[in-house]
Design a protein that fits this description.
The chain is α/β, with parallel strands linked by helices. Helix content is 55%, strand content 9%. It starts with a strand and ends with a strand. The protein binds 6-phosphogluconic acid. The site of 6-phosphogluconic acid has 12 residues, from helix 8 and helix 12. It holds the Pfam family NAD_binding_2. This is 6-phosphogluconate dehydrogenase, decarboxylating.
Length: 478
């Protein structure tokens, strides 16, 4: 065969990735379970580059040059396993299967192991940026063997988004499931970013008394500063949009129940297993699920509490500036938590993930792309073993400068009865890290009291237990 790459699964993401490869000068074999989609792609976009349309699995595999590189763009879960089972028997040693879906990294680890035994490389690659990204340049997070990246990397670099300094937003993240793990945390951070922006909107709407159009303007202003990011930019677009049918702000005609497909939930589940406090991301997932409990909300509508009283114009303006500080500080915390989780996952699975490169490939193409990621990259590049983003001098100073306004916003929200789970969880995390002593000592005492779970002392090595039911002497535990 002559095709340098193949794409099977031609729904919108697969189709756009195939077009992106072709537009960048590669010969692309294309395949779909139902051949009509393959024909439609070539009919509509055939002039964009060199496509090799194929109908059967055998024909598809035969169209590829060796080592074969096939990108699978089907639904995560069983459909992915089915496609692998269909193609693996047709492949030879050294061939590479790339899964570009939102797979769970544990599935990716299993698939990689099974295919490795047959001499086939399996690369779980996170692909972020939605339909537009797939076509014009996504951020790509490939895992799998370093060897597979040698043949695959140059092709991915052609189609990836380019950071402002021109570097392609793709890197070999680490072996087996590392790529899908990092994509999962990307989505967890995406949930947190979206929740924080939503809280800022809610406060500006209810406490500052701003209209959606005015908030759109405020966000456009923020987008020229340190909050410069894709999500702030599209938020302004959504808020400025008017519903054609009613003439009302679009945001007022949409049901206030947020949905989710699962990657944010996975981030939190895995963080719990790894023992990593991702409280900001967790609150974002819970906020979505709470919003969806219509019956719970209906049953609670009569509960007592304040109704927000909008501020006058001048006070509103000052408040909006404080909300910007709270949003920025909370954002630093969610990235701190997300990067902590990547570091913990990398240690657990021995992936050797370089946090600076992760920040670097998130600078463009992906949903959480933001100017701020270049500074996270710089922080980890300067100190690869940085324990926490908050221990970086510049981020530490910035969040320190924001903290007074951040507190004022959480106080105002609490007083006025506006829920800010993201802002307040982030602030609690910040204060817990600052605290000289945490009440965890008391928790240990309670555990020892009711279950002889033992504790450690501040002044001596070893584990101890107090005979709470007896004369309360302390004994050294085994
Ligand atoms: C991306 C997005 C993408 C998807 C989200 C939506 O990086 O391009 O994250 O993967 O649109 O996962 O997730 P929810 O449906 O769970 O909000």
């Amino acid at each position: 065969g002559t095709a340098q790459i193949g794409v099977t699964g031609l729904a919108v993401m697969g189709r756009n990735l195939a077009r992106n490869f072709a537009r960048n000068g590669l010969t692309v074999a294309v395949h779909n379970r139902t051949a009509a989609k393959t024909r439609a792609l070539v009919e509509e976009f055939g002039e964009e580059g060199r496509f090799v349309p194929t109908e059967s699995a055998e024909e598809f595999v035969a169209a590829l040059e060796r080592p074969r590189r096939l990108v699978v763009m089907v639904k995560a879960g069983e459909p992915t396993d089915a496609v692998i089972q269909e193609f693996a028997p047709l492949l030879e040693e050294g061939d590479v299967i790339i899964d570009g879906g939102n797979a769970h990294f544990e599935d990716t680890r299993r698939r990689e192991r099974e295919l490795r035994e047959r001499g086939i490389h399996f690369v779980g690659a996170g692909v972020s940026g939605g339909e537009e990204g797939a076509l014009h340049g996504p951020s790509i997070m490939p895992g799998g063997s370093a060897e597979s990246y040698e043949s695959l990397g140059p092709l991915l670099e052609k189609i990836a988004a380019k950071a402002p300094d021109g570097t392609p937003c793709v890197t070999h993240v680490g072996p087996d499931g590392a790529g899908h793990f990092v994509k999962m945390v990307h989505n967890g951070i995406e949930y947190a970013d979206m929740q924080l922006i939503a809280e800022a909107y809610h406060l500006l709407r209810t406490v500052a008394g701003y209209s959606p159009a005015k908030i759109a303007k405020t966000f456009r202003g923020w987008n020229t500063g340190r909050l410069d990011s894709y999500l702030i930019e599209i938020t302004a677009e959504v808020l400025a949009h008017e519903d054609a049918a009613t003439g009302k702000p679009f945001v007022d005609v949409v049901q206030d129940r947020a949905e989710q497909k699962g990657t944010g939930r996975w981030t939190v589940q895995i963080a719990l297993d790894l023992g990593v406090p991702v409280s900001g991301i967790a609150e974002a997932v819970f906020a979505r699920s709470l919003s969806g409990h219509a019956e719970l909300r209906e049953a609670s509508g009569a509960l007592a509490g304040p109704v927000p009283e909008p501020l006058d114009e001048k006070a509103a303006e000052a408040f909006a500036a404080q909300v910007e500080q709270a949003l920025y500080a909370s954002k630093i915390v969610s990235y701190t938590q997300g990067f902590h989780q990547i570091r913990a996952g990398s240690e657990q699975y021995e992936w050797g993930v370089d946090l600076g490169s992760v920040a670097a490939i998130w600078r463009a193409g992906c949903i959480i792309r933001a100017a701020f990621l270049d500074r996270i990259r710089a922080a980890f590049d300067a100190e690869p073993d940085l324990v926490s983003l908050l221990s970086d001098k510049r981020f530490g100073e910035e969040i320190g400068a924001a903290q007074e306004d951040w507190r004022a916003v959480v106080v105002a929200a609490t007083r006025q009865g506006v829920p800010v789970p993201g802002f307040s969880a982030a602030l609690a995390y910040y204060d817990a890290l600052r605290a000289e002593r945490l009440p965890a000592a008391l928790t240990q005492g309670q555990r020892d009291f009711f279950g002889a779970h033992t504790y450690r002392r501040v002044d001596r090595e070893g584990s101890f237990h107090t005979l709470w039911g007896g004369d309360r002497t302390e004994v050294e535990a085994g």
